[in-house]
Amino acid sequence: MTTDQINEVLDWLRDAFAMELQSGRVFTNLVNRMEQYPRLKNKFKEHLEQTYRQQEMLKGCIERLGSSPSIMKDLAGKVIAFGQSVAGMSVSDEVVKATMSSYVFKQLEISSYTILIAASEMRGDHETKAVCETILAQEVAMADWLRENLPLITREFLNPAEELELAAEA
User: Fold this and answer.
1) Could you report the per-residue pLDDT of 92-109, keeping only the tens digit for each?
2) 92: burial class by Cβ within 10 Å (0-12, 13-18, 19+)?
3) What pTM value is reported for the model?
4) 119 to 97, 108, 123, 153: CA distances (angstroms)
5) Residue extents of the structural domains in the chain
6) What is the third-level CATH fold of 3-169?
7) Residue 19, φ and ψ in degrees, nearest 5
């Protein structure tokens, strides 16, 4: 790989790191506001813990390759996450929109890790490839869970009494 190609891969790793920082902030805000939806709150909390581990793994890859996470991308992520959390507080259907936007964000992350796996393989960087494969599997699992639960979350929002009935039957 040329120096330009290696720099491109490092940029993609820093982008992924910034996405995970943003994801951590967004999921922290969501966990704090999903009291009426304990199943969703618990899933978001579980994924938040994964996200923190993903941040550390990506930081390790970046540092192993002789670089550091980007401060500017981190700052941009903070601004975006803050905007998302403020916007979410003002809508009555936050739970539905948060689930939808989380699903869409997971697709962006999935795409990012897919390209990083291909690039790492090209470079012969087995450590970064393994890290990205691990994270990709976690993001796919979360995206699948969100997609599969969108109908139930929608029903819970539109008819909270139905959720009580479902909980009683379980």
Assistant:
1) 888 899 999 999 999 999
2) exposed
3) 0.83
4) 33, 17, 6, 37
5) 3-169
6) Ferritin (1.20.1260)
7) -65, -40
